[in-house]
Amino acid sequence: MVATRAEIIDAIQAGRNRVTATFSKLSEDQLQSKIHEGSDGWNARQILAHLANRQPTYDMLVSIAVDGNGTPPGGFSIDDWNQKLVEERAGRTREELLEEFQQVHDHLIERARKLRDDQLSFPVILPNRETNLGNVLLGSGGMHSIQHASEVEEALGIDPDE
After folding, report:
1. Is a pLDDT exceeding 90 seen at residue 70?
2. Which of 18, 1, 2 shows the shortest CA–CA distance to 105?
3. Is residue 76's pLDDT more than 80?
4. Of 39, 1, 46, 64, nearest to 151 (Cα)?
């Protein structure tokens, strides 16, 4: 099954709204709170940086589906990729990260609108699954943002409805 353009755009907008609502109300102390366990675990600010820096990831995913053979480059590590992009944003303020996040996801919505219907079904082969571009954009563009916002809310005891 392939996600429809409307489903993709709705998910991206829902993710954008949830991330903005969640991260806008965090205090500076909460932004510094570690959310992911382990020595390489991210704090809330780093999670926001991860969500803000998704443009290169989205570009790569669309490119491997539309222009390539559906697979990332050999030796590609999503963890290393994500960490590098987060580190590049280490000095940015919450406001700068939220602005970048909004711009990236506005651009992704426009890109989704311009993809042909058949391109949404183009294959994308990831290390953990084989899927299609439509479902990748639905998951990466919207559900991924909601998942991370939810993790932060849960770790910090925040009610998303308040």
Report:
1. no
2. 18
3. no
4. 46
DSSP 3-state of 117: helix
pLDDT of 65 above 80: yes
* Residue bearing tokens 């709204």: 17
17 token code pair: 């709204």
The CATH code of the domain that includes 92 is 1.20.120.450
C-alpha 135/C-alpha 141 separation (Å) is 10
Position 161 in a domain: no
Using pLDDT thresholds of 50, 70 and 90, give the confidence band for residue 11: very high
- Of 112, 10, 92, nearest to 51 by C-alpha is 92
Could you list the residue range(s) of the whole structural domain that residue 149 is in?
Answer: 5-156
What are the residues whose beta carbons fall under 8 Å from the beta carbon of 157, sequence distance 6 or more? none
